[in-house]
Each structure stands twice: as C-alpha cells, then as structure tokens.
Amino acid sequence: MTIHCTGHETTGHAPLKALVRAPLSAHHRVIVAKLVNAYPNSVRTWDLVDALYGHDPNGGPDNGNQSVISMMVHVRRHLAEYGWTIPKAKRGPKSTGYRLEPTDKP
Fold first, then answer.
1. What is the DSSP annotation of 37-59?
2. What class does CATH assign to 2-102?
3. Maximum Cα interatomic distance, the chain, rounded to a whole number of Å
4. What angle do CA 65, 97, 102 make, to 5 degrees?
5. What is the Cα–Cα distance from 65 to 74, expressed in whole angstroms?
6. Are 31 and 68 in contact (CB under 8 A)?
7. Does residue 10 carry a pLDDT above 50?
8. What are the sequence ranges of the domains in the chain?
9. SS3 6
10. CA 28 to chain centre
11. How do residues 21-79 score in pLDDT, each as one tens digit?
C-alpha cells in the first residue's frame, strides 16, 4: 500500500499524528481525535456522541448513535488513504465501540 500523507510516498500506515491533521470536517476531526487519543483501545459510541454534541445548546440530534454510525462511513473512507481503518462495531450489549486499526497487518 502506498500512502500519500507527508508530501512523499511511503508504505504502511501513516503515524497517528497525521490522522489528526487529515483534511476532515469538524465532526469527523472530533471522532478521529477521540480514536487517536484512545489508541489502541476502543471508544464507546456514547462517548463519541458526547464529544460531538455534549456542548450543543440544542442537545444534538435525536439519535446521536445513528449519526455516529453514519459518520463512520465517511471517516473510514478518509482514513483508508492513510493506511488506517475503523473496524465495524458490534451492536447491542456486547458492543465494544470503535477503534483504529492499521490496514497493513503483518
């Protein structure tokens, strides 16, 4: 895999710092920052909802969990360019949330 994040080609995955500087929307940057700070651990969906909408005077969307699920599609697409992915989270009581994972596993 060839990564184009530092102005020159490299192989493997970009450093976590590069993910935080990726050209993303404000909400997507919040998600990536939470995941980078937690790496290699998971972040619960509710914690992402709180990070995204906790300071919203209107309380955010009615279904914040669904908003996060929808945003993950776009975030995954952008992170793939950097050699990272976010595995799909399990739903229900056994859900562990979301986490970053390099795509170039040995």
1. HHTTS-B-HHHHHHHHHTT-TT-
2. mainly alpha
3. 46
4. 120
5. 15
6. yes
7. no
8. 2-102
9. coil
10. 7
11. 889 999 999 999 999 999 999 999 999 999 999 988 888 888 988 999 999 999 999 99
Among 89, 79, 90, residue whose Cα is nearest residue 33:
79
The length of the chain is 106
Tell me if the pTM is above 0.85. Answer: no
Q: Which helix (H) or strand (E) holds 102?
A: strand 101-102
Q: How far is CA 2 from CA 12, 76, 95, 99, in A?
A: 7, 17, 32, 22
Which CA distances in Å does 5 have to 2, 15, 40, 46, 65?
10, 9, 21, 30, 30
Q: Which amino acid, 41?
A: N
